[in-house]
Amino acid sequence: MNLxxxxxxxxxxxxxxxxxxxxxxxGQEYLDFYGGHAVISIGHSHPHYVKRLxxxxxxxxxxxxxxxxxxxxxxxxxxxxxxxxxxxxxxLCNSGAxxxxxxxxxxxxxxxxxxxxxxxxxxxxxxxxxxxxxxxEKINAPLNKQQKVTILPLNxxxxxxxxxxxxDVCGVILEAIQGVGGLDEPTSExxxxxxxxxxxxxxxxxxxxxxxxxxxxxxxxxxxHHISTTLNASSDTERSxxxxxxxxxxxxxxxxxxxxxxxxxxxxxxxxxxLLGTTFxxxxxACTATTAVLEVLEKEDLIKNASQLGIYFTKKxxxxxxxxxxxxxxxxxxxxxxxxxxxxxxxxxYDQHIFTGGAKDKHVLRFLPALNxxxxxxxxxxxxxxxELK
Length: 390
Ligand SMILES: Cc1ncc(COP(=O)(O)O)c(C=O)c1O
What we know:
Blueprint: E1 14-18, E2 21-24, E3 29-32, H1 35-38, H2 47-59, H3 70-83, E4 88-93, H4 96-111, E5 115-119, H5 128-132, E6 149-152, H6 157-164, E7 169-175, H7 188-200, E8 204-208, E9 247-250, E10 261-266, H8 284-299, H9 302-317, E11 325-329, E12 332-336, H10 342-350, E13 354-355, E14 364-367, H11 375-389
Helix pairs in contact: 2-8, 3-8, 6-7, 9-11
The structure holds pyridoxal-5'-phosphate.
């Protein structure tokens, strides 16, 4: 049997990895500034993560959601504390698309309505409603196109207000920083107004934090960069005054490579038996991988590191004349050039042995390293980039 040929592959075969170094089958080392699509958050084979998973595997790797699993409770408690989202409940699944699919489904259950508002250049995954909410005609099959979705430009509040006022919308889904699209962001004002209008029209606000969550943007969640206008500014701390989406979807960096996703659902949205479900979601290994990631984020203060190194990266990028603009926050970054970057990406891999990412915007080179990289690693990246841009 052959593989179903859907991926154009680089000719590199990784066989081991440690920290940000990936080694191929010929012994060549590569610096991983892409983290396999923003997945590697605490570095490849982090010793704490490896130990936790090995220990767990020696005890029990899987049992179904029909029995008690204290590891899920431990994970939910720690996630609530570290993300400042203790007023949410956690549902665990297996990927980003599945997280968004469940989020959109919950929006429809909760409101009894069916239309979704999503945004231009957004990416939410490849399952039924998630792909319909994704602004990419090519990956939507006729089956997906049956969903009722309105795609609006980012930051066009008048258009948004007009659509939501039609009172048939169940959910609004947006990324705090568009990953696949190319690092564009809603303004704070736009995000705040969306929150207010969702509350007014009883529409479920879904923050897709699949890529920007778990510390990547320099805060636990990307939306936490935007302060809410709906809460009392004088009596709340800055952190607790951030936007409060109704549902937050997570995956990618959450498991540092172990396939795991989830949604944080605000306590105002009630659960009932059978409403959501999954065979693999929340299994013992997935919970252990995610708890280990949270422990490392906390112990090594990696969210602060992401924030500080994002600033350092932006400063270094300013020294390169060909860079038109630096986009993104923390260690979710992009360099915009006035040429398409596909060739540059190839040269970075084959000549400089450095992994970077592309985006839907073909002029943007994406930088999504593990959150524990150092200034020296960033210097290595810019030296390599300068060499290729000569
Ligand atoms: C913002 C966002 N949402 C959802 C997804 C889908 O995640 P997955 O590929 O795990 O289904 C992605 C993947 O790139 C993403 O970037």
